[in-house]
Amino acid sequence: MAEGILRKAIEKSGARVIVDSAGTSGYHSGEAPDFRAVRVLQKKGIDISGLAARQFTVHDFDEFDYIYAMDSSNMMNVLNLARNEEDRKKVILIMNEVEPGLNRSVPDPYYGNLDGFEEVYEMITKASEAIIRKL
Length: 135
Prior knowledge:
This protein is mainly α. The chain is built from 6 helices and 2 strands.
């Protein structure tokens, strides 16, 4: 969801930024997004149906200036792959862009209903707006 939402926000802003997403485990590598995420974002005019999950790798530190984590667990998994302080400085809990220092996590809506996906949409939209202002 975050990749689609941020890409749409960047497209609207006219910024020239590369956006990609990756999980910290390989359980879903190659799979399409959850059908509920696709449905919620389609209602918002965002198509993520063509995306496929991939696992975060050390190489991502070389490719990206910012690496946003959705929650503290994923953030720690990414930080554990960091090779040096430069890598570590790139890793940010995404909601800290909205509320610096509060370390709020984006909840995983997988085990809930569509309302959870709507909540995540709202949170990531706010974070995306903050990221655009930062850029």
